[in-house]
């Protein structure tokens, strides 16, 4: 007679947090500023406004824009205000790569995390994922959880690194 295999991890009170769950749920798309600039590098207000007015703002609705600025271009701060005014349905507009904007949104989402739902818990922060997350995210989740959890670990249920255990 064979013994039944018991999944001890599934039966434990261990809660796993996957930081990728805190990445944006909406699309973050690259928006290149160069086509709106005169000769792709110089900001002339009238030209910029004309180019911007020809863009269909609706195609970006519900998305975030990662604005790519040409290296040699000098772009005044009001340009971002004008972009925001034109793309009213956009969730976020920021200069940087798609990944950097996603990381910023991840950090904002972690800042708003209510750690009380993990009070006195045994928490495992998932260590592997589909993409590299910023190291700051692991520091921030730790800062949020350490005051309330019994145990904090990093990795996978089958192989983890103990980080903290309340005495």
Task: Provide a quick synopsis of the model.
This protein is α/β, with parallel strands linked by helices and 167 residues long. The protein has helices spanning 8-11, 45-53, 78-86, 98-111, 135-145, and strands at 14-17, 28-32, 64-68, 92-95, 122-126, 151-156, 159-165.
Kindly describe this structure.
- The protein is an alpha/beta fold and 167 residues long.
- It has two domains: 8-24 and 103-165, no CATH class; 28-90, no CATH class.
- It has helices at residues 8-11, 45-53, 78-86, 98-111, 135-145; strands spanning 14-17, 28-32, 64-68, 92-95, 122-126, 151-156, 159-165.
- The strands form two sheets. A four-stranded mixed sheet has the order 1-5-6-7. A three-stranded parallel sheet has the order 2-3-4, with helices on both faces.
- Helix 4 runs parallel beside helix 5 (135-145).
- The protein is elongated and about 80 Å long.
- The model has no long low-confidence stretch (mean pLDDT 92).
List the helices and strands and how they pair.
Layout: H1 8-11, E1 14-17, E2 28-32, H2 45-53, E3 64-68, H3 78-86, E4 92-95, H4 98-111, E5 122-126, H5 135-145, E6 151-156, E7 159-165
Parallel strand pairs: 1-5, 2-3, 3-4, 5-6
Antiparallel strand pairs: 6-7
Helix pairs in contact: 4-5
């Amino acid at each position: 007679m064979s013994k039944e295999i018991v999944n001890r991890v599934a039966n434990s009170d261990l809660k796993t947090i996957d930081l990728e769950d805190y990445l944006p749920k909406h699309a973050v798309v690259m928006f290149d500023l160069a086509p709106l600039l005169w000769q792709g590098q110089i900001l002339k207000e009238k030209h910029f406004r004309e180019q911007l007015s020809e863009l269909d703002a609706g195609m970006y609705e519900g998305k975030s824009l990662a604005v790519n600025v040409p290296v040699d271009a000098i772009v005044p701060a009001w340009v971002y205000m004008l972009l925001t005014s034109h793309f009213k349905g956009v969730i976020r507009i920021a200069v940087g790569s798609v990944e950097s904007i996603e990381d910023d949104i991840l950090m904002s989402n972690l800042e708003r995390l209510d750690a009380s739902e993990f009070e006195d818990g045994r928490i495992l922060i998932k260590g592997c994922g589909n993409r590299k997350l910023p190291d700051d995210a692991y520091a921030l989740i730790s800062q949020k959880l350490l005051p309330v959890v019994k145990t904090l670990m990093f990795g996978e249920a089958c192989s983890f690194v103990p980080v903290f255990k309340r005495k």
